[in-house]
Amino acid sequence: MSIQVRHVTKTFGQYAALKDVNLDIPDGELVALLGPSGSGKTTLLRIIAGLEVPDANPETQILFHDQDVAARAVGDRRVGFVFQHYALFRHMSVFDNIAFGLRVRPRASRPSKGDIRARVHELLKLIQLENLGDRYPSELSGGQRQRVALARALAIEPKVLLLDEPFGALDAKVRQGLRRWLRDLHDKIHITSVLVTHDQEEALEVADRVVVMRQARIEQQGTPEEVFHHPASEFVMDFLGHVNLFHGRVDAGRAVFDGLAVDHAAGDAANGKAAKLLVRPHELELFREPNGNHSVKATVTRVHRAGPSVKVELNGPEGRELFVELTHERFAQAPVAAGDTAYVSPRATRVFVQDFSI
Ligand code: ADP
Ligand code: MG
Q1: Cβ neighbours of residue 141 under 8 Å, at least 6 residues apart?
Q2: pTM given for the model
Q3: What structural domains and CATH numbers belong to the chain?
Q4: Which residues have CB under 8 Å from 11's CB, separation 6+?
Q5: C-alpha span between 148 and 154 (Å, rounded)
Q6: Looking at residue 293, what is its pLDDT?
Q7: How far is it, in rounded angstroms, from Cα 9 to Cα 6?
Q8: Which atom of ligand 1 is nearest the CA belonging to 39?
Q9: Best label site of 175, 247, 254, 286, fewest CB within 10 Å?
């Protein structure tokens, strides 16, 4: 295990930014800390880095390769950083920016000029900017600057790379390109990395593990598949992508929602309790006729056909909006248009009954 965080609490005045957080980050993995703004992601990252000190507690530990680093200064933790706003030195060339961390080392551990040159060229190659070493940051695109920031962080050969919303300031298309690039880079160098993001797509696409944070705590952690397909709570399901929500009640071994009945095995204790049914758009089917007691009647309000799938918006019971996503082939079998009546039926369901999910 590369990084272990044990019982970390951090309060700012009266406000708890982290509440008894425990986290293991395996060696060589890329872990995403994902959560809404204010959930404590940056605070956790800064504590790992040593830029912030957790509240005093005898149980609190931050271990790097089983060694307690609590007493170790930031500079001794061998951590590389990349932040949202490229903190490149504007008056220095790309080459000098990347070389900076090596040149400021104490004389005894400073590499020779030739070694620095070789290392910077290696990094320029890694970030695919081989011919731009002489440029200044202002002569680069936003995406190129973030790649330089990454190379600069890697120059000191850190044991751990910490990235705080590194692509947050870039436009969607560039972000997507950089995401894939970061994943490829990680596959090449396998440096233990923690990526903070509030973008669920970014976390699901890039990370080996996703740690979902909510209000100063870790809500769930797992592989991208686990958190997406087996969300531990309504919060996680909702945060990881669009969901359709149906309200209902548990009755005699079934949960009933606006005409939809879903079997469940929660036991009699759940009888009479309010339940919520959450279904992703691609897990809903669309029919022209009622589908037994497994469908909800709705009115089509809009159909989007431009794209890899067909997206249908509907007005469901009590005026609630429903979103259905279908393949073009599936849609062609039973096409609908705005104003049509249609019946919506879930293929996969996830029911949350008050305190427990089934
Ligand atoms: P995130 O990165 O998930 O958006 P942060 O870790 O930055 O969240 O912040 C978590 C909470 O702690 C927020 O409510 C924020 O206002 C508060 N906070 C963070 N840093 C400080 C600070 N230095 N002083 C006071 N409050 C802070
Ligand atoms: Mg933050």
Answers
A1: 174
A2: 0.85
A3: 3-239 (3.40.50.300), 244-357 (2.40.50.140)
A4: 17, 55
A5: 10
A6: 63
A7: 9
A8: 3
A9: 247
pLDDT band of residue 358 (cuts 50, 70, 90) is very low
CA 217, 220, 224, 228 dihedral sign is negative
Residue position matching structure tokens 């951590």: 79
Q: What is the pLDDT of residue 21?
A: 98
Copy the structure tokens of residue 308.
């890899």
> Best substitution site from 15, 45, 55, 194 to test ligand 1's pocket, by max atoms within 8 Å of Cβ?
15
Tokens of 192: 């233990």
H-only helix segments in 193-246: 200-206, 224-229, 234-239
Please report which confidence band the pLDDT of residue 267 belongs to, taking 50, 70 and 90 as the band edges: low
Sign for the pseudo-dihedral over CA of 88, 128, 119, 208: positive
The tokens 């598949």 sit on which residue? 225
CA distance 336 to 329: 13
Q: Whose CA is nearest to atom 2 of ligand 1?
A: 42
Ligand 1 atom closest to residue 35's alpha carbon, by position in its atom list: 3
DSSP β-bridge partners for residue 341? 299
User: How many Å apart are CA 214 and CA 5, to the nearest integer?
Assistant: 17
**Interaxial angle between packed helices 113-126 and 94-103, expressed in degrees from 0 to 180 and rounded to the nearest 10:** 130
356 has pLDDT over 70: no
Residue 212 token pair: 């979902």
Give the pLDDT confidence of 227-265 residue by residue, as tens digits. 998 999 989 999 998 888 888 888 877 788 877 787 766
d(CA 230, CA 272): 25
Check pLDDT > 70 for residue 355.
Answer: no
